[in-house]
Amino acid sequence: MTRRGVMHRRARRQTVSAPACLAAIGVVFAVIASFTGATVASAAPGPKVGIVCTDGVDGPGNNKIFDLTTQTGYISLPDGNTAFMWGYSSGHDDFQHPGPVLCVNEGDTVTVILHNTLPETTSIAFPGQSDVLADGVPAEPEFDGGPASSLTNTAAADDPQTPANEGGTISYTFDADQPGTFLYQSGTDPEMQVRMGLFGALIVRPAMGADYAYNRSDSRFNAAEEFMVMLSEIDPYQHSAVERGKTFNMNRYHPRYWLINGRGFPDSIADNGASWLPTQPYGALADVQPFEVGGGDVPGMARYLNVGTEDYPFHPHGNNGLVIGRDGHALESDTGEDLSFEKFAINIGPGQTWDVIFKWYDAEGYSPTNPLNVTVPGLANQEIGMFYSGSPYLGATEELPPGIQTLNQCGEYYIISHNHALHQITSWGANMTGPITYMKIEPPAPNTCG
Question: How does pLDDT run across 28-39, given as a tens digit for each residue?
Answer without folding.
Answer: 333 343 343 333
